[in-house]
Amino acid sequence: MNLKSLKIPTSMKETLWAYVFISPIMLGFAVFMLYPLSASLYLSFTNSDGITVAGFVGFDNYVKLMSDKDFIKSLFVTAYYTLGTVPIGTGLALIVAVILNAKIRFTTIYRSAFFLPVITSMVAVATVWKWLYNTDYGLINAFLMNLGLYEPPWLASDKWAMPAIIMMSIWKGIGFNMVLFLAGLQGISPTIYEAAKIDGANGLRRFVHITIPLLRNTTLFVFIIAIISSFQVFDQVFIMTKGGPAKSTTVIIYYIYQNAFQFFKQGYASAMGYVLFAIIFVITMVQLKISNRKDVN
Amino acid sequence: MSAPSTSLSISKRPPVSVKAAAVKWLARALLHLLLIVGSISMMLPFIWMVSSSLKNANELYAVPPIWIPQKWLWQNFVYMFEHAPWGIYFLNTTKITLIVIVGQLIVCSMGAYAFSRLNFKGRDALFFLILCTTMIPYHVTMIPTFKIMKSLDWINTHKALIVPALFSPFGIFLLRQFFLTITKELEQAAMIDGCSYPRIFWHVILPNAKPALTTLAIFIFMGTWNDFLAPLIYLNDDGLKTLTLGLASFQGTNTTQWNYMMAGALIVMLPILIVFAFAQRYFVEGITMSGMKE
């Protein structure tokens, strides 16, 4: 009874304190998320250059984007990067995770080796890979020469620069996806595998018929994250190629960066940002939809 | 990946034939071989970086490549420190990272406490709104945020990097999930003793949330230490630069001196590697949590 009579003043106090506790995060949220989000939508309808007073131009920026060859190209370059990194990167990570999930010795050491690139700075490792890809003295071409194979000019060629960035990015990201897959694998009960073993299913069949279906949610999730982050690739491009040669590695964020901070076309860059946002949103929704349909079946 | 085993493990000690044991041993050996090759290939870029950073120009460009330099040229690092203020870059990065860690932990744990423990109007709607924004890419808000910084006259200051980084939807999410798992009995006992909400937050919730706070701290450390785009946009003065931006600028002026470039890359990543050696578990947990949010 005593507690109940206390409750009314407590709940008012509770609400009051709750607002005190959330006020810093809500303030930051309003200033650095809600405001910029709406401001950049507004900017995308202006010809803001950061110096003169911005004028309202309606859908001009968006119309201009449709015929901007460099923008269209940057979309294709980004799609190329995504198709190059995501399927191979996720597939390799899944295989490594399944192997490292086995009860064998030294898994911690192996896991660390795969995880190390994840924690290191992209700027630093991109610098290292730039040296590895050096056409005349790089380690990779020295290795290829040793095998008597063709030595590509890598970052110096518009044909090879993107594959070089893709390989490096797969190396960098494999450990991240591996950790997510390992977490998913922990959720599969070992008794399912035991039962399949007794039924005479070999390793490969267990992988295809148990691991892959039961990891579907994790895989979907890894795919979504991988696609979102691959649409936002920037650091390695900036360090390794600066978008070149011949704009062959000018991914969309790099193009936005150039427009916003080098050409000072802030309105135009904001419109690009929103187009990219829309693309990411649609891709995520489509993926979620596909996974839901599979649930019904 | 393991060999098909023929013996059914029903009895406690199955009779293992010599042949089955040999097959199993061979499979294991192959697996380890595969993993060793894989691990070494993953490590090769790092090994090559260290090796290159200690070479002179002749060894650097030698064909075939030399893995272990005859004389380890530690003076390459001395050269680095003489030609760019790496000590200052290091201090700048450390300062920014520490302030962001402490600040974000305070802001996010306060918010997470209210969102997980206190009842108030609009709580779930607000939390959902915050959670939705984790999906929004940084570049969408980048330009208006830059304008805010410009109007505050914060361009070319560390404030432009620190202040926006204090508010993290992911931090709120991670801590809230953990706070929900803390038993309510401790709180109720404290409440009956007449403890105020701030005291409960400080004396009951925070001490019980140390693993989650550590995980978030490590996660922030990794993100802030390695951040490149924000320093690139905001910082111009050499004396204000962070390690990643310092390395990028150094590269602009020393393109072909790869021994120095590799020394620089090592300087940038060494601190995080040291922390990783001691707190590996929290790095992995942070990544796992970041995979759980949506």
List keywords for this structure.
heterodimer, A: 297 residues, mainly alpha, 13 helices, 0% strand, B: 294 residues, MetI-like fold, 14 helices, 71% helix, disordered N terminus, MetI-like (chain B), Carbohydrate ABC transporter permease (chain B), membrane (chain B), transport (chain B), MetI-like_sf (chain B)
Written account of the structure:
The complex is a heterodimer of chains A (297) and B (294). Chain A has two domains: 1-43, no CATH class; 60-296, MetI-like (MetI-like fold, Orthogonal Bundle), CATH 1.10.3720. Chain A contains 13 helices and no strands. Chain A has helices spanning 2-43, 60-66, 69-101, 107-119, 122-132, 139-146, 161-186, 190-198, 203-214, 216-230, 235-240, 252-262, 266-296. In chain A, α4 (107-119) packs across α7 (161-186), α7 (161-186) runs antiparallel to α10 (216-230) and α12 (252-262) runs antiparallel to α13. The longest helix of chain A has 42 residues, at 2-43. Chain A is globular. The N and C termini of chain A lie far apart (54 Å). The mean pLDDT of chain A is 87. With 294 residues, chain B is mainly α. Chain B has two domains: 1-39, no CATH class; 79-290, MetI-like (MetI-like fold), CATH 1.10.3720. Chain B contains 14 helices and no strands. In chain B, α3 (75-83) crosses α14 (258-290) and α13 (243-253) packs antiparallel against α14. Chain B is flat. Residues 1-11 of chain B have low confidence and may be disordered. The chains are: A mainly alpha (297), B mainly alpha (294). At the A-B interface, α1, α3, α4, α5 and α6 of A face α1, α4, α5, α6 and α10 of B.
